[in-house]
Amino acid sequence: MELAIFIITALIALVGAGAMIMSRNAVHSALFLLLNFAAIAILYLLLRAPFLFAVQLIVYTGAIMVLFLFVVMLLGAERAEDERDAIAWQKPLAIGLSVILFIEALIVSFRNGFAALPELSAEAEQIGAPETIGQVLFSKYLLPFEITSIILLVAIIGVIVLNQRRKTVS
Amino acid sequence: MIQPPQIDFSVIGALTVLCVWGIALLLIDAFFIAEGQKRVTGYLALAGLAVAALVGLPSWGQSSNTFSGMVQLDGFSQTLIWIFLLAAAITIVISLDYLPRHDIEKGEYYPLVLFATAGMVLLAQSTNLIVMFLAIELVSIPLYILAGFAYPRVTSEEAAMKYLLLGAFASGFFVYGLALIYGQTGTVQLFSVDGSDSIASYLDRATLVAENNVFLFAGSALILVTLGFKVALVPFHNWTPDVYEGSPTPIAAFMSVGTKGAAFAALLRFLVQALPNLQAIWMPILAILAALTMIVGNIGALKQLNVKRMLAYSSVGHAGYITLAVITGTTLGTNAFLFYILAYTLTNLGAFAVLIALEKQGESAWSLEDLSGLWQRQPLLAVAMAIFMLSLAGVPPTMGFVGKFYIFSAAWEGGLVWLAAIGVITSAISAFFYLRIIARMFMYEPTRAEEASLSRALKVGLAVAAVAVLLLGLIPTPIIELVNNSLLVAAR
Amino acid sequence: MTQAVSLEYVLIVAAALFCIGLFGALARRNLISMLMGIELMLNAVNINLVAFWRYLEPSYVTGQVFVLFIIAVAAAEAAVGLAMVIAVYRSRTTLQADEVDSLKG
User: Fold this and answer.
1) I need a surface site. Which of A127, B190, B208, C33 has the fewest CB within 10 A?
2) Which top CATH class is A1-79?
3) What is the pLDDT of residue A119?
4) Residue of A nearest to C68 (CA)
5) Residue B232 and residue B297: Cα distance in Å, rounded?
6) Range with the poorest average pLDDT among A149-158, B171-180, B375-384
7) Is pLDDT above 50 for B53?
8) Three-state DSSP class for B306?
C-alpha cells in the first residue's frame, strides 16, 4: 500500500517536473511546478514528516509559487518562447549533463545497501513532531536560525532597493 | 521546556556587531538621515567596522568555539576577520564619492556591505556545513543586490542577474553535496575538538573503500564545485569578467577580494579540517585545477584591452596562486595563504580605486587609452597605480612579491615543485600586461583632456593602500609574525 | 507495511528531480523558468535530506531542521531573483536570457 502511494506520488512529481520544463508557456510551467511541489509535500507525509508537509504547502505552494505566478502575469510574460534557438549548444549540453548525473545517481544509489524503511517506534514518532523541531531549532541550531532571519531581511531590502526608481532619471 | 544554549559571545563578537549595527543603521538611515546626506551613513558604517575589529582584540590568540562547535574562533579566523573588515572599510571609503557621482546613492548600500561582511566573517569561522551554506548565502545575496545597484547602466542589471542565476545554481550543488555527506556520515560538522561526531572522525573510523563511501566522495566533489565557483577556479570562472565589468566598481573590488578570501577560507577548512585523510585524493585534482587557473587567468588577461576586465582575469589568475597555498595543507601553506590574502586585498582594492578616480558619470574609462599619459595629468595617481601593478605582478619591493615568494616556497616544501614552476612562469607572463599599463601611463602622451576626480575620501583610500603595499613589502616582518601566530585549529 | 519503500527509490526520485531542475536551469531561456528550475533543484535536495533523516537516523531531527533552512534561503533567493526579473523587464521588455547580452566576454 505504502509502496503504491509512493510510486503514484513520485510519478506525479516527475511528470509535473517534466511538464514544467517542456511547456512553453510560463504560466503553465509555474502551475506544473505547483503540482510537483504538492506531490513532494505528500512524499514528506509518507516519510512521516508532517511538519515539513505543512511548511512545504504553505511556503512553497502557497507563497513562493504564487509569487512566481504573480510576477509572470504582472509582466505579461506568459507568451510562448519563440522556437528559434540562439543558444543551441546549451540544450545538448544540458541534456548530456542531466543524463550523466542521473545515471551516476542510479549507480550510486544501487551500490549502497541500505536497510529498508525502519519501523518507527512510538517514541520516534514523536520526533518528527513540530515541538521537537522547535526545540532543536531554538537550542542546538539557534545560530543558523538567526542567520536565516538576517538573510530574509537582506532579501526584503533587496527587493525594495532593486525596484525603487528615482523620480529624476537623467 | 527549551533550554537556551550557552553562548560564548567572544567567539561571535565581530559577527554580532556587524549584524546588529547593520540593522540599526537601516533604521537610522531611514528615519534620521536626509536624502543627499547619505555619506553620513557611510561614516557610521565605518564606525561599526572599527568596533567589530576592536572586539576581536581581547580574545586574540585564544581558540574557542560555541554553538556546539559550529563556529570556531582561532588565530586563523581572527586574522581573516581583520582582513575582511579592512577590505569592507576601504570599499566604503572608495564608495563615498562614487555613489553620488553616478547618481546611485542610496542609504541601503552601506548596511548591505555590512551584512555581506558579516557573511564573510561567519564563513571564515564556520566549522559546520549548514552554517557554511548560510554564510555563503549571507555573502552572496547582498552582493547580488549590490551588483545591480548601478541601475541606470543596463550592464549592471545584467551582471546582477547573471551573478544571481549562477550563484543560486551553485548553491543547489552545495546543498546536494551537504545532503549526500549527511546521508553518509550522519553529521555535517567538519571536525570537533571534543571528539563528538564529525566528518573527520568518521574518516578516522571508516576504512577508505571507495564503494562504501560513494556519497561522501560525490558530496565532497559537489561542495568543491560550489566553492570553486565562488573563488572563480577554472573551469568555473566564466562569470567573473562579465560580473566585474557590470557591477559598480567598488562592489567589483569588494567581490574580488572579500568573496574570494572568504570562500577560500571555507575551502581550506573543508579540505584541511574535514578531509585531511583524503589529501592523497584531492591534492592532485586541485593541483591540476590550480595550474589551469593560473594559465587561463593570466593568458586571458593578456588579450584584454579593457582594464576592468583585465583585472577580472587577473583575479582568476591570483585564485590559482591562492589555491596553491591552500592545497599544501601545511602550516606554512596556511600562513602563506593569510599573507597573500592581505597583500591581494590591499593591492586589488587600490587598483580598482584608481579606476574609480578615472570614471566619470555615465561613462566608463576603463580602456588602456584612458590611462595614457596619466603621469602628466595626475602624477600621484600614476605612481599609486604603478605600485599596485608591480605588486600584482609580484615585483619587489612590494607586498605582492613577498606573498608570491611565501606561496611558492610553501608549495616547494609541500612537494608541489612542478606547480610552483608553473606559478613562476605564469607570473612572468602576467608581468607583461601589468607592465603594459605602467608603460601606457608613463611613456604615452595623454589622449584625454579630462581631469580625474580625486576626492578626499578616495585619496585617503588610495594612500592607505599604496603606502601599505610598499611599506609592508619592504618590512614584511610584522605581518609575517602575525600570520605565524594565526594558528588553524586542526582535528588532531 | 509489507511492501516497504526502500531508501534507494526515494533517492532516485530526488536525483531525477534534481536533474530535471538542472536541465531547466540550463536549457530554458526564460529567466523566470530558469529560476523555477533552481527552485526544483533545491526541493530535490530537501527530499534527500528528509529521506536520510527517516531511514538512517530517525532519532535526531537534524535532517528536517536543515530542510527548514534551505526553504528559507530558497524563498529569499526567489524573492531577490524575481525582483531582478521585474527590473530587467522594465528596462528592456524581454526575459529571454540570450537577449540580455550587452556584456560580451
Assistant:
1) B208
2) mainly alpha
3) 56
4) A52
5) 10
6) B375-384
7) yes
8) strand
- Among all residues of chain A, which has the CA nearest to that of C35? A68
For domain C8-93, which architecture applies?
A: Orthogonal Bundle (1.10)
pLDDT in tens, A69-87: 988 888 876 565 554 444 5
Query: Among A4, A13, A144, whose Cβ lies nearest the Cβ of C69?
Result: A144
Could you tell me which of C24, C28, C50, C51 has the C-alpha nearest to residue C38?
A: C24
B276: Cα separation from own chain's centroid: 24
B142-169 pLDDT, tens per residue?
A: 999 999 888 767 788 888 888 999 999 9
Greater model confidence, B474 or A164: B474
Cell of B117: 561582511
Using alpha carbons only, what angle is made at residue B225 by residues B220 and B230, rounded to the nearest 5 degrees? 125
The C-alpha cell of B239 is what? 562569470
Nearest to B229 by CA among B217, B238, B220: B238
Radius of gyration of chain B (CA): 22
Q: Do B138 and A151 touch (CB under 8 A)?
A: yes
Q: Which residues contact B62 (CB under 8 A, 6 or more apart)?
A: B10, B73
Cell numbers placing B343: 597583500
DSSP string, B379-444: HHHHHHHHHHHHHHHT-TTSHHHHHHHHHHHHHHHTT-HHHHHHHHHHHHHHHHHHHHHHHHHHHS
Q: Is A141 part of the contact surface with chain B (CB cutoff 8 Å)?
A: yes
Interface predicted TM-score (ipTM) of this complex, two decimals: 0.91
Chain A closest-CA separation from residue B407 CA (Å): 34
Q: Where are the domains of chain B?
A: 13-484
| Closest approach of B122 to chain A, Cα-based (Å) | 10
pLDDT of residue B65: 84
Report pLDDT digits (tens) over B99-119. 888 888 888 999 999 999 999
Within 13 Å of residue A53, how many CA atoms lie on the same side as its CB?
Answer: 12
Contact call for C58 and A141, based on CB within 8 A? no
Compare A122 and B258 and report the one with higher pLDDT.
Answer: B258
